[in-house]
Amino acid sequence: xxxxxxxxxxxxxxxxxxxxxxxxxxxxxxxxxxxxxxxxxxxxxxxxxxxxxxxxxxxxxxxxxxxxxxxxxxxxxxxxxxxxxxxxxxxxxxxxxxxxxxxxxxxxxxxxxxxxxxxxxxxxxxxxxxxxxxx
Length: 135
Ligand code: ATP
Known about the structure:
Layout: E1 6-11, E2 16-22, E3 24-29, E4 32-36, E5 43-56, E6 59-73, E7 76-80, E8 84-86, H1 92-108, H2 112-133
Helix pairs in contact: 1-2
Adenosine-5'-triphosphate is lined by residues 66, 83, 85, 89-91, 94-95, 98, 121, 124, 128.
C-alpha cells in the first residue's frame, strides 16, 4: 500500500527545529510556491525567504524559513536553512521592530549592497510575522 505520510526534518546549523510524520508540506521556492504529498517523485528546490507550511492529521503549522533548500526523496523531506522558527515560537514584537528597522534602512540606503541587506532583513521580518499570524 502507498505510504500516507512524509517524514520531515527542518534543520538549521544550530538544531532540528521540527521533525515529524506529516501529510503534506508546502514551501516557497525561488521560482514559485509548491506542495508535496506522500509518494511524490524525488524533488529538490532552492527556497526563498518565506514560510513553509505542514499539514498533519488535519492540523496546520507554519514556519518561517530563511532560504536554504528542500530535498524530497522516498517520502523523506529535509529543509536545510540558515534559520527557521515555528510560528508559535516567534517573538512578534522583535519581528515588528526588525521590520521597522529594515524599512528605515531601506529609506536611507545609498548603495546596492545596503539596499540588498535591508531588503533581506525586511523579507526575514515579513516571513516571521506571516508565520506567526498563521499560528
Ligand atoms: P533581528 O534583527 O531581530 O535579530 P534577524 O533577521 O537579524 O532579526 P536572524 O539573523 O535571521 O535574525 O536570526 C538570528 C537568530 O535569532 C536565529 O536563531 C533566529 O531563529 C532567531 N530569531 C530572529 N528573529 C526572531 C524572532 N522574531 N522570534 C524568534 N526568533 C528569532
